[in-house]
Amino acid sequence: MPAPSPERLPAVWLRDNCPCADCRDPRNGQKLFQIVDLPRDLAVGEVRQAADGAGTEVIWSPDGHRSVYAHEWLAEHEPGVSGGTGDGRTEADKTLWRAADLAGALPEATWAAYESEPATRARVLDAVLRYGFALLRDVPRREGQVLDVARTFGFVRETNYGKLFEVRVEPDPNNLAFTGARITPHTDNPYRDPVPTLQLLHCLTNAAAGGDSGLVDGFQAAALLRDEDQAAFATLTRTPVPFRFDDAGTALAADRPLIDVDPLGRVREVRFNNRSIGTLRLPAADLDAFYLAYRTFAEILLRPGLQLDFRLTPGDCLIFDNVRLLHARTAFSESGARHLQGTYADMDGLASTLAVLRREQAAAEDGPLDELAALFAGEGAGEYLGEEVTMAQHMLQAGALAEAAGAPDHLVAAAVLHDIGHFHGPLHGTDLMDGKDNRHSHTGADRLAPWFGPEVTEPVRLHVAAKRYLCAVEPAYLDALSEASVFTLEVQGGPMSPEEVAEFEANPYAEDGVALRRWDDRAKDAAAATPDFAHFRPLLAALLRTRRG
Amino acid sequence: MPAPSPERLPAVWLRDNCPCADCRDPRNGQKLFQIVDLPRDLAVGEVRQAADGAGTEVIWSPDGHRSVYAHEWLAEHEPGVSGGTGDGRTEADKTLWRAADLAGALPEATWAAYESEPATRARVLDAVLRYGFALLRDVPRREGQVLDVARTFGFVRETNYGKLFEVRVEPDPNNLAFTGARITPHTDNPYRDPVPTLQLLHCLTNAAAGGDSGLVDGFQAAALLRDEDQAAFATLTRTPVPFRFDDAGTALAADRPLIDVDPLGRVREVRFNNRSIGTLRLPAADLDAFYLAYRTFAEILLRPGLQLDFRLTPGDCLIFDNVRLLHARTAFSESGARHLQGTYADMDGLASTLAVLRREQAAAEDGPLDELAALFAGEGAGEYLGEEVTMAQHMLQAGALAEAAGAPDHLVAAAVLHDIGHFHGPLHGTDLMDGKDNRHSHTGADRLAPWFGPEVTEPVRLHVAAKRYLCAVEPAYLDALSEASVFTLEVQGGPMSPEEVAEFEANPYAEDGVALRRWDDRAKDAAAATPDFAHFRPLLAALLRTRRG
């Protein structure tokens, strides 16, 4: 993408984004000037290439200020070109769902995996942002544990119910939640402003008959309402509803619409709680319109296809978006033991934790990929065992052949990386052409193992054995080998014996090793167009161990 | 106000407000039905007076449900009749201000008064809701004290800055707040969603040159913008602005407009922070419009007349609305000691605490006023020392005479209550007509003292002495006394001696006592129209000790 020319960009916007140390504190990235500090008649004066060639330099008129914008930044932020996903809080950034979309495939993880694997933690937090919830299993059934769960991604929001609330039958309940009654789908605390955006429920005991859980995607329901009855949708976005809660020590009030949209009209919050709607004060005609729309929305929310039903079992901890998902529970026998502990928290902390995890993950990926890129660019430019291509060209051609053959990503990766064992640098090898078997296939596979799984490393490990295998089972194969390959075949042990053939064929990665070998053999064409390492980088990144779990 | 007839009211709205025990949990007031549980063709069937006469009974068609609505409730909640102030969060419920409105009259209280006097606490919290801030003085200069201040009215909102943050120069600051730089008016944490709605800053040390504080009413500025440039106002309410904050462990993002309006178009939140606005992604024309509007708003915010300047001195704790007020500070010498501790909290908890305080205050007022009303209705209906009026009539007539004379409220109250010492019940007295001075003036004053100040109790205490005084200094006065009064004069000690006269005149309440005495003497007219106790109740309520402080 070419960088747009600064003269074509809105001047104040461009200047407001000046990255120089006078405009932004280098310690924390905060802006150091105010908008009124900029000249009223600001304009781009002079434009030239920055000294380092990587950016565009702007000299501003009339104040002579100098800004340097990286080409990459200019290209990425060109006004009007869609980009960025906003803050991730509106329906635009969510995956809306109905029960059937997730039944039997709840976004979940064990507590052990969540605690120990950053990738699992990222997957769980992403599910809360994307689907509105995630379920942690086998969370220690310890009182107060729910607070520790919340603290893994954010901050507990204390309310009149305490830092932690008990969901069980109470003798003199101040809320229906603390009885055995059925609770229809609702969001919590709509009478609070700001409403807690996340809720956690940790199941300690659930031996009661009944007391099953349900979740409804309120954004999905709002979208259906908008499709089916636009006027009702508009009414619910425009009518502040008085939510109220009173007990001995509390008198909470918030007047907010059932469906809250952002300035662009996108759904960003849903509040729905039949229990706590107070008395609306509107002209009679508006009351009629509101109640009609409210009923229509309630009917959609109660459609059987929308509610995802499941049962929290002891050790489960549900984390959910309290401004999007409605939660419900069936009635239960007040005699059976049922005990959940809950807490509230906020989405911004969760989103921040996820963003930092991803940043760390990207940094962790950049390490190995930068190292591989350096090897391809450095030693890789060297001679390849007497062939007419460099080592890097050879490996990249093997990858290109695998790609052209429609091979799965892990096999393309294995092809690109198969001779990594030849490289020195961090991947010390020895010189095969000196007549010693450096077992470069094993060295390479072992060096790749910290970064990639066996679906990548094992075909690499087998690609030398595959040559010996093919020589044993395909007489024509031996005849077609290059001169250098024939020489190394002897060093490597010659064609396999029948016992070795049987053993090789028993290896689950044998077929992949053979496929890799055939690309390996053809990847020595000095005339072939060869993709560069950057071409394969995203594919390699996606296979890194940090992405899994 | 007459109650509207149920047939004229929107049926679903009325039914949704049914107060019966099947519709609302009597334990907690929560609604027990869902809107979809109501018949689609709901209509008022039959209407009749409720058995107790205080309400209207509705029999609903077609389901035969029975609701009883108090006349008072129907009159108060009539649709379309303005009533209720909503949740108090929009500009409609605020007192907008400029610096001159509050300079020298900051809403403030000492920590000791705030802690010990519920009325002072209510006044301070009300100021935060109404003006957007209040200042507590002489708060103990103890580290962590700011958290205790927050906990007097709500819950601390923990953030990436911790439960508590230190505002002082830090060696490697992640925020400009932790340097000595000037900070222009801004709201905090706009990159958080939900943004903390309250901030507290507690000054422990401020010996640096500079470092003064300023506050700007962002709602006032928004209102000015709307008046002066409606298009700019509309642009700022419609443009989500990407606020961003990143440091080693945090990556916060919120896309929210600078001016947030409720569905009725009323300003409800302002976010303004030049330091943390990221890169806007809009078409070029929209960027130009936004930057023009942003600059115009910034210029208004920086008008000198708007910013209220003051200096936090050690022991001061500022509580302010972080979604309305912008705060600023002048630069200060990094060598001088300046140390503030801050925390965030939320408005909903503060508003709830204030509402509960007011409820308790009303209950505290209802106690004495209900007791007085019962005395007037009970014993007050009895004979008044041989006069032709009852005791209650006599006292109420005295009050009416004071009122007609334009007397100040405290003196009207004293007139209404002056013979309270005659009552038995909780105010045990003895029978003056038995020939003993029951010192009913002193008894009455002493009994009133827990509820009312000396401006009410002391004229009551002096009203018997005033008779003896007037008999001594006004010969015509004695002649005009009623037969019963002449009899009791002797029991009470006869006309004053010259020494007693001098002593009486030295009493600061003597004049009020004499005025009261003259109404007392005239308030024995069996033919006069007499207001009831309820007429004086609001006046009495306003004078209760619970309202002062």
UniProtKB/TrEMBL annotation, chains A, B:
Occurrences of domain HD (ranges) = 394-461
Q: Which residues form the TauD/TfdA-like domain?
A: 115-344
Would the keyword Kinase turn up in this protein's UniProt record? Answer: no
One of the record's GO molecular function terms: dioxygenase activity
Report keywords, A-Z: Dioxygenase, Iron, Metal-binding, Oxidoreductase
Q: Which family does it belong to?
A: Belongs to the gamma-BBH/TMLD family.
Report the protein name in the record.
TauD/TfdA family dioxygenase
- Look up and give the organism this protein is from: Streptomyces iconiensis
